[in-house]
């Protein structure tokens, strides 16, 4: 933030960057097929979540702050009337491409945020009566949005190959063996069955 005397903007950006780091970490080591594998009834998959987050970063931190989104794919997705367009990566997109798109979107967002104040005005057309807001509210919203979807990625990734953890710098998960995790899951299953 340009003149963040209180440090609040820096703290919000730190929380957002923690989520961004987790999101990219959840993508590492996956094949394109794994990243596209839908593992919920609604089709949730890693690459779809990544594309959605790239579009969302650009929407909130670029378009809503009066700047032009440079990436044509993101512009096209945002103009699409299909509510699921941002969760459906193009057929020719590889996971590496989606990761690069996300990095590009977050870098472009950061460039705009670097020249904004927490109380800078923002307009979010899809928020209806609450459309007039501030950069601070956008940051809080994107922190929640990013961490929510990082959690989705965490669950999907665990189903794909057993990979778990919060983020590379803070895994935040006990170091149990596969047998101990099986024991824990069975213990919880027993509690649920007897509830």
Q: What is the 3D form?
A: globular
State which percent range the strand residues make up.
under 5%
Class derived from helix and strand content: mainly alpha
Report helical residue fraction. 55-70%
Low-confidence blocks of residues: none
Task: Spell out the key features of this protein.
mainly alpha, two-stranded antiparallel sheet, 195 residues
Outline the fold blueprint.
Layout: H1 8-27, H2 32-36, H3 46-61, H4 72-79, H5 95-113, E1 121-123, E2 132-134, H6 135-161, H7 178-193
Antiparallel strand pairs: 1-2
Overview of the molecule:
With 195 residues, the protein is mainly α. It is built from seven helices and two strands; from the N terminus they run αααααββαα. A two-stranded antiparallel sheet has the order 1-2. Strand 1 (121-123) and strand 2 (132-134) form a beta hairpin. Helix 1 runs parallel beside helix 6 and helix 3 runs antiparallel to helix 6 (135-161). The longest helix is centred in the C-terminal third of the chain and has 27 residues, at 135-161. The protein is globular, with a radius of gyration of 19 Å. It starts with 7 loop residues before the first helix and ends with a helix.
């Amino acid at each position: 933030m340009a003149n963040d005397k209180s440090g609040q903007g820096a703290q919000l950006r730190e929380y957002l960057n923690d989520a961004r780091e987790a999101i990219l970490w959840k993508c590492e080591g996956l094949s394109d097929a794994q990243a596209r594998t839908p593992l919920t009834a609604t089709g949730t998959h890693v690459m779809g979540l990544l594309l959605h987050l790239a579009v969302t970063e650009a929407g909130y931190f670029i378009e809503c702050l009066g700047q032009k989104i440079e990436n044509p794919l993101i512009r096209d997705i945002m103009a699409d009337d299909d509510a699921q367009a941002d969760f459906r990566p193009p057929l020719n997109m590889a996971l590496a491409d989606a990761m690069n798109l996300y990095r590009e979107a977050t870098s472009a967002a950061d460039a705009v945020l670097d020249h904004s104040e927490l109380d800078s005005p923002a307009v979010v057309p899809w928020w209806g009566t609450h459309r007039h807001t501030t950069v601070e509210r956008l940051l809080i919203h994107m922190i929640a949005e990013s961490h929510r979807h990082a959690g989705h990625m965490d669950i999907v990734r665990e189903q794909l190959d057993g990979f778990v953890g919060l983020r590379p710098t803070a895994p935040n998960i006990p170091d149990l063996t596969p047998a101990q995790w099986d024991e824990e899951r069975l213990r919880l299953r027993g509690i649920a069955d007897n509830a």
